[in-house]
Amino acid sequence: MASSSADAAAVVARNDGMEEDDFPEASLRNIIESDLKWIFVGGKGGVGKTTTSCCLAIQLAKVRESVLIISTDPAHNLSDAFGQKFGKEPGKVDGFENLFVMEIDPSFDWEEMNAMVARSGSIPGAEGEGGGLQSMLQELTSSIPGIDEIISFAELMKQVEQMDYSTVVFDTAPTGHTLRLLSFPSTLEGAFGKIMALKNKFSGLMSQFGSMMGQAPGAEDALLGKLDQTRDTIEKVNKQFRDPLATTFVCVCIAEFLSIYETERLVQELAKFEIDTHNIVVNQVLFPDKDATEMSAWHEKTKATLPGEANEIISKFLARKRMQDKYINQVFDLYEDFHVVLMPLLDHEVRGVESLRRFSEALLTPPENE
């Protein structure tokens, strides 16, 4: 027999001999009342990550001095959600004094780095082609898979730390991209090992080659120094991300098999990376405060008085409701020590500040079964 999503925790509790009160509260109040610095929001594509990020940030802005939302998804949606244009510099959200948004480019501009190095004066003659050796090292480095995203993320984190926001909410890309972002430290460490091994093995040859090509001394060291700074930043950030008092990850899904499956994969990977996660938001829930069994019983009693088309619509709705309740029960069963929040499916889009404000209240107020 299908149970209502609002009663899912109680059903699991009865099956396991637990009291319903033993389950964590079905809200994100634990995050709002914490001192967390970094909050990631992620999950499968199309499950409402951006809406959840915005709603969470709005609630945080009520109790924090300053909150920044950063989109790391190449397909930015924060501007659409809030109904105003944002860019790579923090922009204040209309109607707030302490809520800001950034939409960053996840790729790194190698030409910009060369120009920056040239302007610094650290490499005489670095302008233009940058010399044969520097170009060779750049080609070698840029061929490392994901290196542009790694450096871009490191530069972003340095920039954000200097801004000194109370809390930073990351509206991440779909799961695969996010897991790659979290694996940056190990990826970079392996890449550095290969580069440094090549440099040490062929240092004499590289110096002679550089002299023949008119390369100024120290060019390769400046480029490698830039990458070394990137590694230091990533390691520092990674240490913070592994601190459960500083960082948590909010998993977002919908009540469907593929989304629940991907959430489980995400939770397992986060455990490998030693990143705290104990909150799951289930979006697009059909009447989370209603019981599917009671609704079906009502339909059985009244369908004889309803037109055929109405019965067909209601039957499909109830089938969807029963399917959702089945998967929501599984979520409560799998993650009995998580805060599982059920967000209702609305009859309109959640866009604009006022709409997001209203919807964000559901993150703190669990539904009550009628």
Automatic annotation (TrEMBL):
Residues 37-303, 306-364 form the ArsA/GET3 Anion-transporting ATPase-like domain. ATP binds at K44, G45, G46, V47, G48, K49, T50, T51, E256, N283. One of its GO terms (cellular component) is GET complex. One of its GO terms (molecular function) is ATP binding. Its EC number is 3.6.-.-. InterPro entries: ArsA/GET3_ATPase-like, ATPase_ArsA/GET3, ATPase_ArsA/GET3_euk, P-loop_NTPase. Keywords: ATP-binding, Cytoplasm, Endoplasmic reticulum, Hydrolase, Nucleotide-binding, Transport. GO terms for biological process: tail-anchored membrane protein insertion into ER membrane. It holds the Pfam family ArsA_ATPase. The active site is at D73. Gene3D superfamilies: P-loop containing nucleotide triphosphate hydrolases. It is found in: Cytoplasm; Endoplasmic reticulum. Homodimer. ATPase required for the post-translational delivery of tail-anchored (TA) proteins to the endoplasmic reticulum. Recognizes and selectively binds the transmembrane domain of TA proteins in the cytosol. This complex then targets to the endoplasmic reticulum by membrane-bound receptors, where the tail-anchored protein is released for insertion. This process is regulated by ATP binding and hydrolysis. ATP binding drives the homodimer towards the closed dimer state, facilitating recognition of newly synthesized TA membrane proteins. ATP hydrolysis is required for insertion. Belongs to the arsA ATPase family. This is ATPase ASNA1 homolog. It comes from Nannochloropsis salina CCMP1776.
